[in-house]
């Protein structure tokens, strides 16, 4: 553990650990050229932001938790950590687990946790559905696919537990619309399971419900502060802006506000972003994220409000966890 305490005269340190191997190298280069609005915002707010790639980090225990990166220990000085902890590659995901567990064992706050029991409720959509449904949120019937040669046994559960197709197949722990597949028939669904199962990601099956996109609701300190409507492009079925959808400001109805705030309270989260499918029969819970959720497509006024809330949240977490001088 580090014994360093925060010096009010120095900028608060943030370390953002990313996984560039999630992306095509050409996408990486474009992102490098364009920079990151999020990083620019945090630096403008007075944070000393460093970017580290997960592939360059070696987690260690040697008398204390250590994260070795370019001949230094990232945990040697107090900092807040943001970890992009999802990946389509199971080996990368396991490495990210080692990184996040090492940070949690240190004095440094893992800012992307942000919920009760983050090991379970941080990324696993099945765990999210159980939790949200227990609190009264509408949740689609969901079938989790078994492993390996037993995966097709999920089809029996689909026939008894879900309405007739089309269906959506999605990884249990992923982001940005990666790996979300629409299967129009049972044969399509069977083939999708055959293709996805060897990857070892773990998959969920749900009915595909006609919808007008989804609404992301931003909750800060127990209150909704903004909402973003994301709509799919033309005949597409994904509303993620990263997958070609478009975003615009939105005024969520009272029921969505109340449920979003209820979820945030139950998770003991001071900064939570909750996604709801917009269907003809009402709003259906989709998933939640914490500080890694995008807000850049909000209208200017809402974007500034969410950015300010994000900065306040990070400062609060850093102040609350900072070691004190002895």
Automatic annotation (TrEMBL):
It comes from the Bacteria. Residues 129-315 form the ATP-grasp domain. This is ATP-grasp domain-containing protein. GO terms for molecular function: ATP binding; ligase activity, forming carbon-nitrogen bonds; metal ion binding. Keywords: ATP-binding, Nucleotide-binding. Pfam families: RimK. PROSITE patterns: ATP_GRASP. One of its GO terms (cellular component) is cytoplasm.
């Amino acid at each position: 553990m580090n014994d360093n305490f925060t010096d009010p005269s120095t900028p608060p340190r943030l370390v953002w650990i990313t996984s560039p191997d999630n992306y095509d190298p050409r996408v990486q280069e474009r992102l490098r050229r364009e920079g990151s609005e999020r990083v620019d915002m945090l630096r403008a707010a007075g944070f000393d932001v460093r970017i580290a790639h997960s592939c360059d980090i070696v987690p260690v225990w040697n008398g204390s938790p250590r994260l070795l990166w370019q001949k230094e220990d990232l945990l040697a000085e107090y900092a807040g950590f943001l970890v992009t902890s999802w990946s389509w590659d199971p080996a990368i995901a396991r490495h990210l687990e080692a990184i996040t567990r090492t940070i949690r064992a240190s004095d440094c706050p893992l800012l992307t946790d942000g919920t009760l029991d983050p090991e379970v409720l941080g990324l696993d959509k099945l765990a999210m559905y159980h939790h949200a449904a227990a609190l009264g949120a509408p949740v689609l019937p969901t079938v989790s696919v078994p492993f390996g040669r037993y995966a097709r046994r999920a089809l029996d559960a689909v026939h008894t537990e879900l309405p007739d197709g089309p269906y959506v197949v999605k990884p249990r722990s992923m982001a940005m619309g990666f790996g979300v597949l629409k299967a129009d028939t049972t044969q399509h669904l069977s083939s999708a399971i055959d293709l996805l199962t060897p990857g070892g990601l773990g998959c969920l099956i749900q009915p595909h419900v006609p919808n007008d996109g989804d609404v992301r609701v931003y909750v800060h300190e127990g209150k909704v502060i903004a909402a973003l409507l994301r709509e799919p492009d033309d005949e597409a079925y994904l509303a993620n802006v990263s997958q070609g959808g478009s975003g615009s400001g939105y005024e969520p109805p009272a029921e969505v506000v109340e449920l979003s705030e209820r979820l945030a309270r139950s998770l003991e989260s001071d900064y939570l972003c909750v996604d709801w499918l917009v269907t003809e029969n009402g709003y259906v819970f989709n998933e939640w994220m914490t500080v890694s959720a995008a807000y850049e497509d909000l209208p200017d006024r809402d974007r500034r409000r969410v950015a300010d809330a994000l900065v306040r949240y990070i400062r609060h977490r850093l102040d609350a966890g900072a070691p004190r001088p002895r």
